[in-house]
Amino acid sequence: MATRMARAGGSRGGPSAGPAAGSAEGAAARSRWASLPGDPQAAAAARRFVRAAFADWADQGLAGAESLTGRLADEAVLLVSELVTNAVVHAGTTVELRCRLEPEREPGAEPSGSRSGEPHEGRSGQPYPAPPAYDPGAGLDGAPGTGPDGTPGPAPGLVIEVSDHHPAQPVRAHEDSAAAENGGHGLQLISAVAESWGITYRRAMKTVWFRLPVGARDGAGPEPELAFDGQLLQRGLRAAELLAPAPRRSARPDHEAGWVDNGALSFLAEASDLLSGQLDADQVASLAAQLIVPRLAEWCAVWLYDGDSGAPGRGIAADGEEQRLARVWHASESRIDALRTALEKQPPELPDGASPSGAPGAAPWPWPYEPGGYGPGGAALACPLVAGGRRLGTLLLGRSGLLRFPDEVVGLIEDLGRRVARAVATARAYSRQERISQVLQRRLLPRGRAQVPGVESAVVYEPREGAWAGGDFWDLFDAGDGRWCFALGDVCGSGPEAAAVTGLARPVLRLLARDGFGVAAVLDRLNKTMAREAADSVAAVAAAVAAAGAGAEAPVEIREEGEQARFLSLLYGEIVPYPGGSGGARCTLASAGHPLPLVLGTDGRVRVVAAPQMLLGVVEDAAYVSESFDLCPGETLLCVTDGVTERRSGRRLFDDEDGLALTLAAGAGLGATALADHIRNTVHAFGPVPPDDDLALLVLQAAGPGVA
C-alpha cells in the first residue's frame, strides 16, 4: 500500500490517479509518460519531453492546452528540471515522468486522488487516517470553490509527477532543510509556484507531484490575483528570490545566511587543520587544489616561487625569478594534461588593484582557452598567495558555464588563499631549517672513518628522535707517524647549543693530535679551553648581578640559558698496530667523565680498561692521565655514550647490573659490524619507546695475524 504524505503548505493528499471519468478526449490522450535514465542528461530530456507533450496537446485541440504556453510552460519546465535533477543526484535510479492535463470537472463529480479517510502508515509506524483527497476546486483555505451559480466548479489543471526508485526517508518539514539536503531549490520552488503539491512514498518508489492551474473558466469570479493579491504577491517574491538570489550574503534571510556562513566556517576550519599538518610546499599546493576541486571550482592550479622567501615586495618578482606550476587539478582527470599545457604558456602575474593593507585580493582572470583541450569557457579567478608581505605564488581556479564567480565564493577563496599562503610560508621555513640542519650535521660528523691496519671498526650514531643534530660525536682519523686516533664525546645537553660545542671540540682534537700531542696533553689543552669559556660565562653573570645590585646598568649582556657554557664528557685514545702484520695493537686512552670503555677478550670475559676522570670544562687546572694496554688479536674494544648506558625502561637503566657488559659478552664471536648492530638492537629493544637521548657507539676489533 502506498504511504501518501503532504508537506505543510502543500496539498492535503496525493496526485490524482488518472484523468476524470467521462473525459471527452479520453484519459490516454490527456496523459503522457516517459522513463528517463538516471544520468546528467535526464534533466534536459525531461524539459524536451514536457514541451513536446504541451505541443501535442495543443495540436489535438484539448481543452486547456491553449494555455500551456508562455509563463505557465516556463514554470512547469523549471519545476520538472529541478525535480529530475534532484532525483538523479540523490537517487541515481531511473526517473519516471508523467504529465497529465486535467479537464474541468463537472459539478458533483468525485474529485480525483486517493479516497478520503483511507488509513496509511506514518513515520512512527502507527496508522492514522489519511487526509481528504485534493479537490481542485477547493479554495486556498480548504473550502470548496464556487462557480457563478454557487456550485463547485474547479478549473482545469496540469499535474506532473516525478518518481524515482530509491526508498528514501520522508523529507523534513522545514523548508530550508530541503535545500540543504537536495542541493537545489526544487521543493522551495514548488511551494512558491505551484497551486498544490505533495510527496507520495511507496515501498520502493518516491513520487513528487505538483499541480498548476490552467486558464480560467468563462464567467469566473474575480481573478485570483485580485482576490488574494497579498498571498500571491508574497509567493511570487519568494519564487523570484529563489530563481535570482541577491549577490550579497547580507541580502539573504538571516537563517539562510547563517547556514551559508556556518558551512564556509566549517570548510575553512577543515582546510586549516589539513594544511597545518603539511611541511612541504608542493604538498600544500596539492592539498589546496584538492580542497578547491570540486567544491568551489572545476579546475585549479597553484603556482609557487622557488625562492626561499618568495618574491620580494608586494607581488613584484625578483629579476629572473619566475613562478613554477606546482600543481594542476581538474574534476576530470583526463583533462589535467591539456589544462597544464594551456597554463604553462603564460604564468599568471600579480593582479592589479592591491588592497590598502598590501594584501592583493582575488581578481578575474582570462579563461585559458586551448582548442580541443579541457572544456568550454567560463569564469576564472587569480588569487595571489601572500604571507608576511611577500608573494609566495598564485592560486588560479575556474568553473565553466559562469560569467563571474559570486561574491560569496570570491570571499571564501580569498580566506582560503590566506591559509594556503601561511601554510606555504611555514613549509618553506621548515625546509630552510632542514637544509641548514643537514649542512651543519654533515660538517659536525666526519666524512668517513679511517681504515686502521689490522683493526676492524664499526660505528653507530643516532641523534635522538626529532633532533636535527645532537651533542654526541665520534671520530676515527689518521694522526700520522703510524698512529690512529679515535674519540667518542658527549656534550651536556642536546640540540643546536650542544652541537655548537661539538663543532669546536672535534676539529681541536684533530689539530692537537696531528701536532704530536699525546692523549693526556690533548685532554689538558681542550679542558683549559672549555674551562675558560665557562669562566667567561660565569664572570658575565656575576658582573651583571653586581651591577644590578648597585643600581647601575649591566656592563655585559646576560646570556640566555641555552647560551651558557657546556661541559663535555670525552673518551679519547690512540691506537698503534703492531708491526710485521702479527695482529693486535697498542692502545692508549683516557676517559674524562665518560662511560668507561670495555674490552671483550677471546675467552668471552669483559674487562674495564680505563679509570674515571673529571669532565672537561669544569676545573681549568685539572690534570688528566692516560692508560695503555694491548688489544690482542680477536679482542674487541667497545666505547659508548650515556645514550646507551642510561637507556630507560621504567625505573631501570640499561647498564644496571652490568647490562652493557652482559650484552657485549653475548656478542662473542661476532665481527665488529655485527657486534655493533647487536648492541644497537638490544638497546632499542630495552624500552617500549624510542630513545630520548643521542646514541653513539664505536667498536674496534683487532684482527688475527696476517689480516690487513
Shape: elongated
User: pLDDT below 50 for ≥5 consecutive residues: which ranges?
Assistant: 1-25, 110-152, 168-184, 217-260, 309-320, 351-358, 553-563
Note the total helix count.
15
Strand order of the largest sheet: 1-7-8-6-3-2
The Cα radius of gyration reads: 43 Å
The amount of beta strand, in percent, is: 15-25%
Helical content class: 25-40%
- Biggest sheet layout: 6 strands, antiparallel
Report how far apart the termini are: 96 Å
Structural class category: alpha+beta
Oligomer: single chain
What integer is the average pLDDT?
A: 75
In total, the number of strands is 26
Protein name: SpoIIE family protein phosphatase
InterPro entries: Bact_Sigma-Reg (IPR052016), GAF (IPR003018), GAF-like_dom_sf (IPR029016), HATPase_C_sf (IPR036890), PPM-type-like_dom_sf (IPR036457), PPM-type_phosphatase-like_dom (IPR001932)
Domain PPM-type phosphatase: 455-702
Biased composition (Low complexity): 17-35
